[in-house]
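This part of the workshop introduces the protein records we will be handling. A record pairs a protein's sequence with a compact description of its fold. As an example, a complete record with its sequence and its structure tokens follows.

_____
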Amino acid sequence: FYFEYPHVEWTYKAKSAVSDYMRAGAYPAIRRKIDGLSQIDAANEILRFVGTSREYRTDDQNWGFEKWNFPDESCLYEYGDCDDYAILFCKLVEDLLGLETVLVSAEVDNGSHLTTAVRFTEPLEGDKLLYNGKTFYFCEPTSTFTKVGQRCWNKFEVKTISEF
């Protein structure tokens, strides 16, 4: 079904709901891992889950063309790229932590990149982004070593910001 689905912009896939199957399967396991943690610690756990649960591969390497995944797809496939990681991370943070997120398209050291930023209600130090009068902190879901509030790119020029 997912492979045959019409090719639409990533923003449509990012805003889609997850399946009942994912809500019943993956969500309880993640909730157990983050239960009782602060927003920041819980977001760091979600970052680790997203960043380590699949191998990074560009869409060209994986599919031979640009393909944006629905959140469910990102949990099904063993490979993904930055947009797949970012969409999944935002969906998990919004659904499980109830925090506002944005997707950030940027030009980085090695080309175009999609990453995320989260609006925390707890105080935090780190790399931040002001958007619509609100402060969001960068969260890099493709990295296995960065934490909430850290970017891992030397060059980072924001191109667009999309509300999730």
Notes: The chain has a mean pLDDT of 91. The first strand starts at residue 55 and ends at 56. The chain is about 35% helix and 25% strand. The two ends are 24 Å apart (CA to CA).
